[in-house]
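TA notes, week 10

Several of you asked for a full example with nothing omitted. So below is the full record: structure tokens for the whole chain, then the designed sequence directly under it. When grading your own attempts, check the secondary structure regions first.
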């Protein structure tokens, strides 16, 4: 399980929204934390309406103060300031992997809005696109206060892609450490929410497509029945549901309706236009939901 958590901080209150999750998980997982700031080339004087950290000395002082007030004494916290100016913050964060040897990155997504987010992505999503290490994305609260973080209910969306099932072992480890309930969810599209080549085919063969989707639902329910039994035999509290509709929309609505604390999904690491054209479910969840999202890189991207 995760033993070293990296938290990149740009100096804004928004970025500090990642700290409650880092403090909570560091305690539960007995992990250490590194707070990191990257000096940007030609950085603006303000970021999100606040003073931007442009000098290494200011950044080091800020991170030390942040470590003292944001983490309990039993959590070991290091600080790291990358003082050489860089153009690409996400690439710099990834480049520090061998040096810092972290195994989880926790970042705040600054919430530019769904439309812009889908086209441009965010630094957090760029990090997962560039590296294989998991990234936990949190969101600031509307009033600017630090969001509360707990881990009582973990949602694990699965689908017919076997690579996405890699999210389950990590979810189980987190649930065991935190005493959380696991909620499994599979969303089978209906005719109205199909996309890509299958949507085109469905217009020519709507009856056949409907039957195939119904068979997929039956297979998913059978699969979940066995999986839920296994989880309970392992001592987990769990639930499993198969729903119909647009996968990203249904997942977001389910997470908010059932007061989920963390969503864990596998992703092929697509961002920006690649994610838009491929219909990346993970990217759309990140853009539409304010529930903390743990992205696990699967496959070759």
């Amino acid at each position: 399980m995760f033993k070293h958590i990296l938290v990149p901080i740009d100096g804004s209150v928004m970025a500090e929204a990642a700290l409650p999750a880092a403090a909570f998980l560091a305690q539960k997982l007995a992990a250490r934390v590194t707070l990191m700031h990257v000096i940007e080339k030609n950085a603006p004087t303000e970021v999100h309406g606040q003073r931007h950290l442009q000098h290494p000395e200011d950044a080091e002082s800020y991170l030390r103060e942040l470590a003292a007030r944001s983490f309990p004494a039993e959590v070991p916290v290091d600080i790291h300031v990358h003082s050489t100016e860089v153009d690409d913050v996400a690439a710099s964060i990834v480049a520090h992997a061998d040096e810092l040897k972290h195994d989880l990155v926790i970042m705040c997504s600054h919430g530019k809005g769904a439309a812009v987010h889908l086209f441009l992505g965010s630094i957090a999503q760029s990090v997962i696109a560039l590296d294989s290490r998991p990234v936990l994305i949190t969101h600031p609260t509307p009033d600017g206060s630090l969001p509360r973080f707990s881990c009582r209910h973990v949602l694990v969306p699965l689908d017919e892609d076997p690579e996405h099932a890699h999210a389950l072992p990590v979810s189980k480890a987190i649930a065991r450490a935190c005493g959380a309930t696991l909620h499994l969810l599979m969303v089978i599209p209906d005719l109205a929410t199909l996309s890509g080549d299958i949507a085109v085919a469905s217009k020519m063969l709507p009856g056949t497509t409907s039957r195939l989707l119904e068979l997929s639902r039956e297979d998913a329910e059978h699969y979940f029945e066995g999986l839920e039994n296994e989880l309970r035999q392992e001592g987990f509290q769990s639930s499993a549901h198969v729903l119909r509709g647009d996968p990203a929309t249904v997942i977001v609505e389910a997470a908010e309706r059932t007061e989920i604390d963390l969503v864990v999904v596998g992703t092929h690491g697509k961002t920006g236009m690649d994610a838009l054209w491929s219909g990346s479910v993970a990217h759309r969840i990140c853009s539409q939901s304010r529930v903390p999202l743990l992205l696990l890189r699967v496959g070759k991207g």
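The chain has two domains: 4-138, 153-289. Use that as a sanity check on your answer.
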